[in-house]
């Protein structure tokens, strides 16, 4: 995790060329770009948006100074296409849980994809799909990862602004709990006994779920650098034990907590697998 | 794009349809001046939601299905919670029901405005994008962005955020707003209401191709309100059924020339979405909506797919007015949700996503775990109808260059605001992509 998110300062031309690419995803992160609203037109002035098929039929070829990549790799064709995106991009930034961690569709990684195909499609032989859904970083070098399902648009704006200014972008990696304390939100785990993933989840959303009276389900992926130090994974084991022993979750329920939107990313993946073994 | 000189066979292709959500392509073959195959191809990778929902707990469903589509997450959440509530015999009434309508209004405002201003209007005014359009028409694009933002603000207040809201649950919400929080939105919504009236007027002034089609419209049709979450399913052909009977009449089939699933009503194509909804429910518009519609001088039923942008704009206005009405009568409910007792069973529900009816069916066991899931999104229902429109449209552009013909076809497709991301179960196609 730690050597990623180090972008070589971009030697930017006057108006850097931006390309936005989509792989397997729900389009929510691209929508977050369109949701910039007040800043969207300014962004269109500061950057030359050369490739953004969702928003423009003017599609120009690379190279691109910055490529934003949404979505995970789930088909042989896409595994090939990402290579050409990488080739054309100076800085490649993944946006969202799909591109950064494999996304919700990575739940297939624990299943028999052929059985999935048969369950969903009448003619499964037409389906070309890999047996896994993987993060972009498993295929090509990634310069910066933006977490979230969806990303936080303010974080995106900040990263782009930093890049334009030739500054190394940095985003906080501490847990959602700190955000709860800052905002004086009553802890749903302490007050209501709801199993919350906030202690091991990366900040970025501003603790949306606890502010809405419910548990965090980990959509910003694993936090780092809390008690463990920068770049180190969060203590998922201790939280899982808490869920099991104090909140009475049975092992399969603990497993499901970790196997969600970001289930394929290492700390969460390993924790869910540990409870799969407990279950057996 | 290719044209073979030696034979009289001509292929018109759009390798990547722009300004739609998700990824799709179109291939048309013409032989001796006659249209042969029209294939709208969906190459959105399969994501298997219906498969991995199996084994999850029912209370996880709203968070999971929201991820099917970032553009209409509320629609997925609403169809899901209604189907699950049917199983548990839970009824959500009064203020909670109002809030559900309201968050859906937020999604309609946001999604419709995105399409009207950013994806569709550029076609009528001759721009590649709204950002390009902003150079000549800054005040219009700014109005669109502000209108869209009003929808987002509504979703954010009720759902925590506008993409993948977090508060929706079986039985209600995890948190409901205070009266004053809703009051705080009012001023902007009053501005938005005027902006929506202007939007209807603006789009009604566009130059529309003469292209009326013979559609079977399908929409929810509640007895006394414009549809969002409930109501029998009505077709202009006389079918009137409840969501429970959906699969008796609507079948997903595989066309012989295409591998994508297409839904048919008793074997034939049909149309869902704003045009269908407006044609079947215009009498439920409020007086202002009726006035704005009358002001366009278009006569009902609207049978031209290009007029969908007008229907969409009228629905933005409706959603804003409905929100204002709900704010005025809002009394916070005693609890943000009603209690739920788990029991085994099967439930079906249909709600009105911005792009048309969205059907969900779930089977749940006694532990509240999902045993089976079926989801039929609007784009799969409209797909067949889009192809038929293209078939009818193509003769009028066959004399043009391939490039211009392809551009025309793309415009027809964009009228539908197809949301290809909602590819819960489109088939993956093996196609060559020119990139
Ligand atoms: S509600 Fe969740 S995120 Fe907030 S302090 Fe409690 S455990 Fe942490
Ligand atoms: S609280 Fe957790 S699940 Fe909710 S938005 Fe934030 S990171 Fe995502």
Overview in brief:
The complex is a heterodimer of chains A (280) and B (435). Chain A is of the alpha/beta class and 280 residues long.
List the helices and strands and how they pair.
The complex is a heterodimer of chains A (about 280) and B (about 425).
Chain A: E1 17-22, H1 28-34, H2 40-46, E2 48-51, E3 64-70, H3 76-88, E4 89-95, H4 96-101, H5 113-120, E5 144-146, H6 153-164, H7 176-183, H8 188-192, H9 208-211, H10 236-245, H11 251-258, H12 266-279
Parallel strand pairs in A: 1-2, 1-3, 3-4, 4-5
Helix pairs in contact in A: 11-12
Chain B: E1 2-3, E2 9-14, E3 24-31, E4 34-42, H1 49-52, H2 61-66, H3 73-88, H4 94-125, H5 130-136, H6 138-159, E5 168-169, E6 172-173, H7 179-204, E7 218-220, E8 233-235, E9 240-241, H8 246-249, E10 250-254, E11 261-265, H9 274-281, H10 287-295, H11 308-329, E12 345-353, E13 356-364, E14 370-376, H12 378-393, H13 402-415
Antiparallel strand pairs in B: 1-2, 2-3, 3-4, 5-6, 7-8, 8-9, 10-11, 12-13, 13-14
One iron/sulfur cluster binds near residues 176, 188, 189, 196 and 210 of chain A.
Structure description:
The complex is a heterodimer of chains A (280) and B (435). Chain A is of the alpha/beta class and 280 residues long. Chain A has 12 helices and 5 strands. In chain A, strands 2-1-3-4-5 form a 5-stranded parallel sheet. Chain A is globular, with a radius of gyration of 19 Å. With 435 residues, chain B is of the alpha+beta class. Chain B has 13 helices and 14 strands. In chain B, helix 5 crosses helix 6, helix 6 packs antiparallel against helix 7 and helix 7 packs antiparallel against helix 11. The longest helix of chain B has 32 residues. Chain B is globular. The N terminus and C terminus of chain B are likely disordered. Chains A and B meet through helix 1, helix 2, helix 3, helix 5 and helix 9 of A and helix 1, helix 4, helix 5 and helix 6 of B. The site of one iron/sulfur cluster has 11 residues of chain A, from helix 9.
């Amino acid at each position: 995790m730690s050597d990623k998110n180090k972008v070589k300062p971009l030697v930017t031309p006057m108006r850097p060329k931006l390309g936005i690419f989509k792989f397997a995803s729900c389009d929510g992160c691209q929508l977050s770009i369109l949701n910039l609203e007040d800043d969207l037109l300014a962004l269109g002035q500061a950057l030359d948006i050369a490739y953004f098929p969702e928003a423009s039929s003017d599609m120009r070829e690379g190279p691109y100074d910055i490529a934003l990549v949404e979505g995970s790799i789930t088909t042989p064709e896409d595994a090939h296409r990402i290579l050409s995106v990488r080739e054309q991009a100076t800085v490649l930034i993944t946006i969202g849980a799909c591109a950064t961690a494999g996304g919700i569709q990575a739940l297939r990684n624990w299943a028999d994809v052929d059985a999935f195909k048969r369950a969903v499609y009448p003619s499964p032989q037409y389906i070309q799909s890999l047996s896994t859904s993987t993060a972009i970083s498993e295929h090509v070098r990634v310069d910066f990862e933006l977490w979230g399902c969806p990303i936080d648009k303010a974080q995106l704006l900040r990263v782009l602004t930093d890049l334009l200014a030739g500054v190394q972008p940095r985003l906080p990696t501490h847990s959602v709990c700190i955000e709860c304390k800052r905002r004086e939100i009553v802890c749903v785990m302490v007050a209501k006994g709801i199993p919350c993933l906030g202690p091991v989840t990366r900040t970025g959303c501003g603790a949306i779920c606890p502010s809405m009276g419910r548990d965090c389900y980990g959509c910003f992926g694993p936090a780092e650098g809390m008690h463990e130090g920068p770049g180190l994974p969060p203590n998922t084991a201790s939280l899982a034990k808490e869920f099991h022993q104090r909140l009475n979750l049975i092992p399969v329920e603990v497993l499901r907590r970790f196997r969600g939107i970001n289930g394929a990313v290492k700390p969460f993946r390993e924790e869910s697998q540990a409870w799969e073994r407990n279950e057996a | 794009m290719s044209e073979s000189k030696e034979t009289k066979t001509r292929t018109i292709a759009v390798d990547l349809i722009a300004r739609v959500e998700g990824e799709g392509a179109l291939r048309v073959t013409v032989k001796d001046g006659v249209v042969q195959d029209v294939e709208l191809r969906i190459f959105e990778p399969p994501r298997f939601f219906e498969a991995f929902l199996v084994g999850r707990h029912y209370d996880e469903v709203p968070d999971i299905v929201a991820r099917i589509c970032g553009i209409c997450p509320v629609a997925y959440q609403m169809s899901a919670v209604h189907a699950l509530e049917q199983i548990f015999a839970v009824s959500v009434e009064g203020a909670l029901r109002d809030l559900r309508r309201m968050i859906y209004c937020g999604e309609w405002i946001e999604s419709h405005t995105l399409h009207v201003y950013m994806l569709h209007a550029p076609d009528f005014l001759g721009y590649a994008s709204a950002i390009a359009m902003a150079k000549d028409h800054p005040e219009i694009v700014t109005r669109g962005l502000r209108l869209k933002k009003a929808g987002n603000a509504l979703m954010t207040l009720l759902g925590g955020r506008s993409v993948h809201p977090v508060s929706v649950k079986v039985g209600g919400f995890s948190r409901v707003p205070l009266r004053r929080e809703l009051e705080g939105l009012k001023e902007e919504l009053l501005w938005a209401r005027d902006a929506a009236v202007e939007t209807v007027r603006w789009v009604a002034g566009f130059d529309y191709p003469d292209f009326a089609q013979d559609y079977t419209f399908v929409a929810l049709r509640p007895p006394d309100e414009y549809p969002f979450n409930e109501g029998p399913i009505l077709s202009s052909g006389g079918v009137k059924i409840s969501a429970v009977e959906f699969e008796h009449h609507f079948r997903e089939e595989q066309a012989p020339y295409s591998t994508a699933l297409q839904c048919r009503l008793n074997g034939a194509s049909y149309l869902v979405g704003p045009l269908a909804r407006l044609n079947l429910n215009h009498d439920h518009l409020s007086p202002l909506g009726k006035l704005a519609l009358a002001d366009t001088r278009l006569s009902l039923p609207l049978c031209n797919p290009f007029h969908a942008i007008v229907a969409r704009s009228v629905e933005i206005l409706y959603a804003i007015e409905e929100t204002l009405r709900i704010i005025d009568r809002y009394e916070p409910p005693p609890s943000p949700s009603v209690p739920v007792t788990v029991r085994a069973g099967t439930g079906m529900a249909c709600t009105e996503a911005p792009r048309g009816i969205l059907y969900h069916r779930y089977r749940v066991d006694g532990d509240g775990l999902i045993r089976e899931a079926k989801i039929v999104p609007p784009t799969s229902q409209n797909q067949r109808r889009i192809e038929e429109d293209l078939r009818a449209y193509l003769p009028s552009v066959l004399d043009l260059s391939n490039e211009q013909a392809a551009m025309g076809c793309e415009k027809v497709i964009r009228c539908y605001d197809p949301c290809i991301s909602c590819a819960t179960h489109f088939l993956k196609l093996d196609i060559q992509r020119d990139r």
